[in-house]
Design goal:
Layout lengths: L1 E6 L3 E7 L5 E7 L5 H13 L4 E6 L2 H7 L6 E6 L5 H4 L24 E4 L2 E2 L5 E3 L3 H13 L4 E5 L8 H13 L4 E4 H4 L5 H25 L5 E6 L5 E3 H6 L7 H16 L4 E7 L4 E7 L4 E2 L2 E3 L2 E3 L3 E2 L1 E4 L5 E5 L5 E7 L17 H7 L17 H15 L3 H23 L11 E5 L3 H12 L3 E4 L6 H8 L2 E8 L6 H15 L4 E10 L6 E4 L4 H13 L12 E12 L17 E7 L2 E9 L8 E2 L2 E5 L2 E5 L4 E4 L5 E4 L2
Parallel strand pairs: 1-4, 4-11, 5-6, 5-9, 9-10, 13-22, 22-23, 29-31
Antiparallel strand pairs: 1-2, 2-3, 7-8, 11-12, 13-14, 14-19, 15-18, 16-17, 20-21, 23-34, 24-27, 25-26, 25-27, 28-29, 30-33, 31-32, 33-34
Helix pairs in contact: 1-7, 2-7, 4-5, 9-14, 10-11, 10-12, 11-12, 12-13
Length: 641
C-alpha cells in the first residue's frame, strides 16, 4: 500500500493505492496549528497499523516563510559582508513608486556575524578562520540563543574548505542548534542568491525537523516528502534540505496534471490548480518547466524547482470593497477555520459563497454529501458586499466570480504568454476543489478550446505524489573552470552513493559571455548547439547573441539522480446510466435550469452543455456552447465551439 497526502490550507487530501491497484480517496479538514495530527488520523483511517509508504506534500516550510514564523536564525558570512541579505540586489519591484515600503527582512541585523576568511574566485584559499575566532563566534551565538545558523562564504562554491571548518567547529560547540552551509544547500555562484537560499533553509529547517519528528511517532509509516522539483526525497534528507519543499504540494499537482493528461493523448498542458486558499498555475510542453530563479515572498531561492506561479484566489478567498468603492477578491483567505460563511462558522463573503448563491454548489454537494452547506449564511455574507456596491445579491456574487477569474487569467498569461507560449496551443487541466467551476469561463477568455478535468480532480496533487519519482539534484558552480568532465564525475559519484541504482541525468546552465543570466540545457554530445536553439526559442533572437560564433560559457553543472517508480493504473469509473437531476443555476448572464450529473453518469460520447458535473471533492461547470464526454482514462474532456 502507498498513500499520497497533500496538506492544503482548507482540506488535507489522501489518495490510497491499495495492493490490488485500486484507488481510494478522502479528505479531512486541515488544522494549521497541528497539521501532523490530521495526517496521522488520516493514515490511521486508511492503513491502520499496516506498514505503508507515504509521500507527503508539506506546507510547513511554505507557511513558516510566508508568515515569518521560522526559527531564530543567525547568518555567518565573510567579514565585511554582514549586510549582504539586507542589501540584496537593489532591484526595484515598483519602478515608479518613489517611496516604496521597506522590504521585510528575515535576517535580524543583530544576528549577522562576519568571519575573517577568504577564498578567491578560483577557489584558492587566501585566509583560513582561526580556532580562537570560531570559539568567540560560538560564544556569541550561544548568548544570542539562536536556534539555527546559516553559513555562506564568498566563493565557497569553488572551495568549501572554510565553510566545512566553521560547520565542524559550531557543530561541536552548539548542541541542538540546526546548522547548514551554502556548499551543501546551493553550491552555485551569485553570493546573494546563494546566501538567501541557505538562510531560508536554516530559517524553516528546525520547524520541518520538528514536524517530521512528530510524524515519525507512527513508526509503521515510511514518510517521504515531495520536493519543489517534482520528485520526492526521504524525510531525513528533507529535514536537512527543507528549502527544497517550499512548493511541495503544488509540485504534486503539476506531476498529476501532466501524467493524467498524457493518458488522454495531451502533452502540452496548462495546469490550473484552484484550491481553498490559492490557485497554482504551471505549463508543461511535454515535460514540466523548471527554474532555478524562483522568488518566494520576495526572497530568491536558487535550487531546481518547477516553474509554478501562485495567486491568492481560491474558494476561500475573501471578497471586500476597498476605500475607492472597488470590488476586490483575495489574497486574504478564510482558510479552514473559520472557512467560507457557508461552512457555518465564518461571516466573510468568499468565492465559494458566491457559487452557493448562484446555485452552482448545493446544500448537500460537498464531499459527496458528507459536508453540509449553510445556504442562508452564504446569502447573508454576499448581501453585505451587495449593499456596499449598491447591487442585488446575484449581481454581487457574479461580480465576485468575474474578479476572481480575472486574477487567475492574469497568472496564466504569466506562465504562457510572458514565456513565449500561446495558451491556445495548450489544453487546460483543471483540478483542485474549485478548478472545474472556473475552468471553462477562463479558457473561453484565453482562447483555449480544450479543458481536461481528471477523475480525481479534487485530490490530484495527492495523486500526483504517487506518480512522482524519487529525485535528488546535485550542482557545482564551474564558472571559469575547464575540467568539466572531472566535475561531472564528482557529482555522479556522490549521486550514485546516495541514490544507488538511480538513473543519472546531466544538464548545465549556459550563457553567452557578457550575459547575466543562464539557460539550462541537457548535457549531450553537442550542448552548445542545443543552447543556441533554446536561446532563440526563448528570446527570439535571429542574430546578435544567438549566433554560433558567440562564445558560450558554462556556469553551473547539474546532475539529477532519478529512481523511477510504477505509476498508478488509472481508468474510468464504470458508466452508470441514470436520469440526471436538474438545478436552477446562474450562467451566461441569466438563470437557467440545467442537468446535474454524477461523474459516472457522463457517457463516452459528446454531450452539449450546459451542465454541472459532480465528483467527490470537485464540481465542473460546463457553459452553453461547450460539449463534454468521459474518455477511457477517466478524464472529463470539455471542448469549446
Amino acid at each position: 500500500m502507498r498513500i499520497g497526502v497533500d496538506a492544503g490550507g482548507t482540506f488535507t487530501d489522501f489518495v490510497v493505492l491499495h495492493d490490488d491497484g485500486q484507488l481510494e480517496t478522502f479528505k479531512q479538514r486541515s488544522n494549521r496549528i497541528d497539521p501532523a495530527q490530521v495526517i496521522l488520523q488520516g493514515l490511521e483511517q486508511a492503513a491502520g497499523k499496516r506498514r505503508v509508504d507515504v509521500v507527503h506534500g508539506s506546507t510547513v516550510a511554505t507557511n513558516a516563510l510566508l508568515e515569518r514564523k521560522g526559527a531564530r536564525t543567525a547568518f555567518v558570512t565573510t567579514a565585511g559582508f554582514e549586510d549582504l541579505l539586507e542589501i540584496g540586489r537593489q532591484n526595484r519591484a515598483e519602478l515608479y513608486n518613489l517611496t516604496p515600503a521597506p522590504r521585510r527582512l528575515l535576517a535580524d541585523p543583530k544576528l549577522c556575524f562576519g568571519v575573517h576568511e577568504r577564498a578567491y574566485y578560483d577557489g584558492a584559499i587566501a585566509l583560513r578562520p582561526t580556532a580562537a575566532e570560531l570559539a568567540r563566534l560560538a560564544a556569541k551565538l550561544r548568548r544570542a540563543r539562536v536556534q539555527s545558523v546559516a553559513i555562506c562564504f564568498l566563493h565557497s562554491y569553488q572551495n568549501a574548505a572554510n565553510e566545512r571548518a566553521v560547520v565542524k567547529a559550531l557543530t561541536g560547540a552548539l548542541r541542538g542548534v540546526y546548522i547548514c552551509s551554502s556548499h551543501e544547500i546551493s553550491p552555485e555562484f551569485r553570493e546573494y542568491e546563494r546566501s538567501s537560499t541557505t538562510f531560508v533553509n536554516a530559517y524553516v529547517g528546525p520547524l520541518m525537523e520538528s514536524y517530521l519528528d512528530s510524524l515519525s511517532r507512527a513508526r509503521n509509516y515510511r514518510i517521504a516528502i515531495m520536493q519543489s522539483n517534482g520528485g520526492f526525497l526521504s524525510a531525513k534528507t528533507a529535514a536537512k534540505h527543507a528549502v527544497r519543499t517550499v512548493l511541495s504540494g503544488p509540485a504534486g499537482g503539476v506531476v498529476g496534471a501532466l501524467e493524467t493528461a498524457r493518458l488522454s493523448g495531451y502533452r502540452r498542458v496548462l495546469g490550473f490548480d484552484m484550491g481553498g486558499t490559492s490557485t497554482d498555475v504551471s505549463l508543461a510542453d511535454g515535460a514540466p518547466r523548471e527554474t532555478t530563479e524562483a522568488m518566494i515572498d520576495g526572497y530568491p531561492i536558487r535550487i531546481p524547482m518547477l516553474d509554478i506561479h501562485t495567486v491568492g484566489a481560491g474558494g476561500g478567498s475573501i471578497a471586500r470593497v476597498d476605500a475607492g468603492g472597488l470590488l476586490r477578491v483575495g489574497p486574504q483567505s478564510a482558510g479552514a477555520d473559520p472557512g467560507p460563511a457557508c461552512y457555518g462558522a465564518g461571516t466573510a463573503a468568499t468565492v465559494t459563497d458566491a457559487h452557493v448563491v448562484l446555485g452552482r454548489i448545493s446544500a448537500a454537494q460537498l464531499l459527496g454529501g458528507a459536508m453540509s452547506i449553510d445556504v442562508e449564511r452564504a446569502g447573508a455574507a454576499i448581501d453585505r458586499i451587495a449593499r456596499a456596491l449598491e447591487l442585488d445579491r446575484t449581481a454581487a456574487a457574479a461580480g465576485i466570480l468575474r474578479v476572481a477569474n480575472a486574477n487567475m487569467e492574469r497568472v496564466i498569461r504569466v506562465v504562457s504568454v510572458e514565456r513565449g507560449h500561446d495558451p491556445r496551443d495548450f489544453a487546460l487541466v483543471a483540478f483542485g476543489g474549485s478548478g472545474g467551476l472556473h475552468a471553462c469561463e477562463i479558457a473561453r477568455e484565453l482562447g483555449i478550446r480544450t479543458v481536461i478535468v481528471p477523475e480525481h480532480a479534487g485530490v490530484l496533487s495527492a495523486l500526483g505524489m504517487l506518480m512522482a519519482d524519487a529525485v535528488r539534484d546535485y550542482a557545482a558552480g564551474v564558472l571559469g573552470r575547464t575540467h568539466l568532465e572531472k566535475e561531472f564525475a564528482k557529482l555522479e559519484r556522490r549521486a550514485r552513493r546516495e541514490s544507488p541504482g538511480a538513473q543519472i541525468e546531466r544538464s548545465a546552465d549556459l550563457r553567452y559571455r557578457g550575459q547575466s543570466y543562464e539557460l539550462n540545457v541537457p548535457w549531450n554530445a553537442d550542448p552548445w548547439r542545443a543552447f543556441h536553439r533554446e536561446h532563440k526559442r526563448v528570446y527570439g533572437y535571429a542574430g546578435g547573441y544567438a549566433t554560433l560564433e558567440r562564445e558560450v560559457e558554462v556556469v553551473t553543472l547539474r546532475v539529477r539522480a532519478r529512481q523511477r517508480l510504477a505509476k498508478p493504473n488509472l481508468h474510468r469509473t464504470p458508466y452508470s446510466k441514470g436520469n440526471p437531476e436538474t438545478r436552477r443555476v446562474w450562467l451566461d448572464g441569466g438563470w437557467k435550469t440545467i442537468p446535474v450529473l454524477q461523474r459516472a453518469q457522463v457517457p463516452s460520447r459528446d454531450n452539449p452543455g450546459p451542465a454541472l458535473i459532480l465528483d467527490y471533492g470537485s464540481t465542473t461547470l460546463i457553459p452553453s456552447g461547450w460539449k463534454y464526454r468521459n474518455d477511457r482514462a477517466g478524464n472529463l474532456i470539455v471542448a469549446g465551439a
